[in-house]
């Protein structure tokens, strides 16, 4: 693969530290969620992954929609990233909730969402590694 763009970010002090991108546009305090024993101050890697995957999937949906001549410009994608124990370590699971415009019928919407799942880089990176559930709402 010839990269068109490479994002660079550095995290220090793990889940209770800071993440900063090389251009300084991203500069976040990280913190453990209350559910994992933290104080809930700061964002966490799962929120960042959920936001990135949702944005990327929405772009992929727009691409396949344009190719099919279907306007999905008002679609919204909500990413849910769960983390839990698996064996001696931890694992992730993703649910993507897609809200399509009312003008898109159910069959067309399902087809476009499945096509987006095939072209989205996040979907391609996670395929076979973590469960990803697609929900059309």
From TrEMBL:
Pfam families: OsmC (PF02566)
Domain of life: Bacteria
PANTHER family, A to Z: ORGANIC HYDROPEROXIDE RESISTANCE PROTEIN-LIKE
Similarity comment: family membership: Belongs to the OsmC/Ohr family.
Official protein name in the record: Organic hydroperoxide resistance protein
Organism: Streptomyces kebangsaanensis
